[in-house]
């Protein structure tokens, strides 16, 4: 049986070891309980919760979702019970589960991210935090944190100071310089980087001559964004040393393999779950079978293998890309 | 409990002009647990394609626990439903279900009024059967564009009083189905409605104008675009007096007075 295990926080004593590299993505798996009846959640490497905010949010008006070619737009508006409502309900359930639960947090001010991280730090049942920086920064006039390396680093530093939990920072594809943001959050203390969040898009109802979504714009996800996501993972993997979690449009094993080859140590699957909840476990099983067939003993052997001039095999035990920054510079 | 399963199409019967009544197999034992108002989500994806990406919701029209089958009423509308309507006997469907809550017949109710618009007829036939089995009286009002678009009387249980309205007057009352409602308001203990949003608004207007002391109560099956069907994505919510509620888990059936219209 090939080794599918991966540690997404090798620099952190609290580590984030997953038995396999397949994670259910934020906003697409609720709080895990929603899917407990239709699939075996315990088979997952991990799952990420819906984005939690400091205060409860009732979300955007309807319609909030619409289908697009090979994709969908969503403008849920971060409907969630707020950090206090969240704390009362979910950690005590997750504590009894074997699968690692990662909490996704969103805020509109640096202090609010830190406040939530401080609350989560002490709780049982939480394996790590994923920081969603694709949010408007109120202090910066609503400019998205994740579009700017400095603001992304500010959030990361504040959360790092507030918790010793494994910390994944989730990058926004709207960043002007995705590699610059990645390097900045690595430097600021992120244990891992995940990408990509949704791309901002819009559909217009020609009959009504109005945007389909009540919010006008929404986040594009699904197969339509996969090439953009793979490119960004590839670029970021060429620059950082911490593990990368890749996502965007994964619909099956072949898509997941593209992300591993681009340099991701683990993948998240989001939109695909809506149509086929069974796909999560299918990808895990097919990955094991594929590695067997290809004679690959450990996932680390293929992580980043698509990069030219990269050592063909990563040192045993070390996950993620190595020294490609030098390669790129040279 | 919802599951993802393959259902084989056993029969396709043309109904209501352009629609199809489909008989589909269920995993053994599932039919007995399914109740009127619930729905299933069907993957209507073209072979080798990512489109349409999301499942389509379909109300359960009826179940037969003896044969482990259910029936669905499919009206070709856009891409997903057109794909489904073209399926043939012997093909299988990828189904997620059963999903959602159910119509609730009050223990004190004697007389039930069904109000159906178009394919909204689907869950109300099953509800009528449940009501008749309890010895209740049922009147079923149905509206459609023209006579062919109506549910054939043979599909409505014989013990039900079936009254129809058509836009063009080709059968029954000429006009909206909701025009018929005032005649039954003092008789009905409960009203159950399924159809387009415009029908709900007009039904609400009629009921609010005529009813006394909050009677009769009205339950509606609300239609929202859906993704997960399991309460995870929060893409299908309905605003209620107690906050946002998902229409896939907390609904699709709501008390009309609870919804913020
Ligand atoms: C709980 C629930 C139960 C349902 N039960 C049934 C049923 O028993 N039988 C049945 O035939 N259908 C039923 N539907 C509706 C069915 O799911 C729709 O036919 C389907 O969503 C339309 O998908 P499509 O792929 O055909 O159209 P699409 O290609 O998705 O739609 C084309 C366009 O029409 C719009 N649109 C989609 N559906 C509607 C609509 N109903 N009214 C107005 N505009 C629309 C879309 O926004 C889009 O712009 C139900 C829906 C819900 C939520
Ligand atoms: C309905 C929906 C809700 C989402 N909510 C969140 C969220 O709360 N926080 C977050 O970081 N990402 C959220 N995402 C983004 C996904 O986690 C993921 O980054 C993106 O959808 C790309 O992956 P996919 O193509 O596999 O879905 C959401 C996506 C969808 C479709
Ligand atoms: S369809 Fe996802 S919450 Fe209802």
UniProtKB/TrEMBL annotation, chain A:
PROSITE patterns (alphabetical): DHODEHASE_1, DHODEHASE_2
Q: Which reaction does it catalyse?
A: (S)-dihydroorotate + A = orotate + AH2
Q: Name one GO biological process term.
A: 'de novo' UMP biosynthetic process
- What note does UniProt attach to the cofactor annotation? Binds 1 FMN per subunit.
Provide the E.C. number(s) assigned to this enzyme: 1.3.-.-
Cofactor list: FMN
**Gene3D superfamilies, per database record:** Aldolase class I (3.20.20.70)
Where does the record place the catalytic residues?
135 (nucleophile)
Q: Quick one: which residues bind substrate?
A: 50, 74-78, 132, 197-198
Q: Which domain of life is it from?
A: Bacteria
Q: Which PANTHER family match?
A: DIHYDROOROTATE DEHYDROGENASE (FUMARATE) (PTHR48109:SF1), DIHYDROOROTATE DEHYDROGENASE (QUINONE), MITOCHONDRIAL-RELATED (PTHR48109)
- Record protein name field: Dihydroorotate dehydrogenase
From TrEMBL, chain B:
What cofactor does its activity depend on? [2Fe-2S] cluster; FAD
Give an example GO biological process. pyrimidine nucleotide biosynthetic process
Identify the residues that the record assigns to the FAD-binding FR-type domain, covering every copy: 2-105
As to how many cofactors bind and how, the note says: Binds 1 [2Fe-2S] cluster per subunit. Binds 1 FAD per subunit.
UniProtKB keywords: 2Fe-2S, Electron transport, FAD, Flavoprotein, Iron, Iron-sulfur, Metal-binding, Oxidoreductase, Transport
E.C. numbers: 1.3.1.14
Q: Which sites bind [2Fe-2S] cluster?
A: 228, 233, 236, 248
What is this protein's record name? Dihydroorotate dehydrogenase (NAD(+)), electron transfer subunit
Biological source species: uncultured Thermomicrobiales bacterium
- Organismal lineage: Bacteria, Pseudomonadati, Thermomicrobiota, Thermomicrobia, Thermomicrobiales
């Amino acid at each position: 049986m090939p080794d599918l295990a991966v540690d997404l926080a090798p620099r952190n004593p609290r580590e984030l070891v997953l038995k396999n590299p397949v994670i259910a993505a934020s906003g697409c798996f609720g709080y895990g309980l929603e899917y407990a009846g239709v699939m075996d959640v315990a088979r997952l490497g991990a799952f990420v919760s819906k984005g939690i905010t400091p205060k409860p949010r009732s979300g955007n008006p309807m319609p909030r979702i619409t289908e697009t070619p090979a994709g969908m737009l969503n403008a849920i508006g971060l409907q969630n019970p707020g950090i206090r409502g969240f704390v009362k309900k979910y950690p005590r359930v997750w504590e009894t589960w074997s699968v690692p639960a990662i909490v996704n947090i969103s805020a509109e001010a640096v202090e609010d991210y830190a406040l939530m991280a401080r609350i989560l730090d002490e709780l049982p049942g939480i394996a790590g935090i994923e920081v969603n920086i694709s949010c408007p920064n109120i202090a910066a006039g609503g400019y998205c944190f994740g579009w700017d390396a400095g603001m992304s680093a500010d959030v990361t530093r504040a959360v790092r100071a507030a918790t010793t939990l494994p910390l994944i920072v989730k990058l926004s594809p709207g960043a002007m310089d995705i590699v610059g943001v990645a390097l900045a959050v690595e430097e600021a203390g992120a244990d891992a980087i995940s990408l990509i969040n949704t791309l901002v898009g819009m559909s217009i109802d020609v009959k009504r001559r109005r945007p389909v979504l009540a919010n006008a714009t929404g986040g594009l996800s699904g197969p339509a964004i996969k090439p953009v996501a793979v490119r960004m993972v590839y670029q970021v993997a060429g620059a950082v040393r911490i593990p990368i979690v890749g996502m965007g449009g994964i619909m099956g094993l072949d898509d997941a393999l593209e992300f591993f080859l681009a340099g991701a140590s683990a993948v998240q699957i989001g939109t695909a779950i809506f149509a086929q909840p069974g796909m999560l476990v299918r990808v895990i099983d097919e990955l094991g079978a594929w590695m067997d067939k290809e004679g690959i003993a450990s996932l680390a052997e293929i992580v980043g293998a698509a990069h030219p001039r990269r050592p063909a095999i990563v040192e045993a035990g070390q996950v993620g890309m190595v020294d490609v920054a030098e390669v790129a510079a040279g | 409990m919802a599951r993802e399963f393959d259902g084989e199409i056993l029969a396709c019967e043309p109904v209501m002009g352009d629609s199809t009544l489909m008989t589909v197999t269920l995993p053994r034992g599932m039919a007995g647990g399914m109740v009127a108002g619930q729905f299933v989500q069907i993957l209507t994806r073209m072979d080798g394609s990512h489109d349409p990406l999301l499942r389509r919701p379909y109300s359960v029209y009826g179940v037969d626990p003896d044969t482990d089958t259910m029936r669905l009423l499919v009206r070709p509308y856009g891409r997903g439903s057109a794909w489904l309507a073209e399926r043939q006997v012997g093909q299988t469907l990828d189904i997620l279900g059963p999903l959602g809550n159910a119509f609730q017949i009050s223990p004190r109710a004697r007389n039930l009024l069904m109000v159906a618009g178009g394919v909204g007829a689907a869950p109300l036939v099953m509800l009528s059967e449940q009501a008749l089995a309890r010895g209740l009286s049922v009147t079923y009002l149905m509206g459609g564009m023209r006579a062919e678009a109506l549910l054939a009387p043979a599909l409505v249980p014989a013990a039900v009083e079936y009254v129809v309205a058509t836009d063009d007057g080709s059968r029954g009352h000429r006009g909206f189905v909701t025009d018929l409602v005032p005649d039954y308001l003092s008789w009905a203990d409960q009203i159950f409605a399924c159809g387009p949003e415009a029908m709900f608004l007009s039904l609400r207007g009629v009921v609010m104008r005529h009813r006394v002391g909050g009677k009769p109560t009205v339950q509606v099956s609300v239609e929202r675009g859906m993704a997960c069907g399991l309460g995870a994505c929060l893409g299908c919510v309905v605003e209620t007096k107690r906050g946002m509620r998902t229409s896939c888990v907390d609904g699709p059936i709501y008390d009309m007075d609870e919804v913020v219209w």
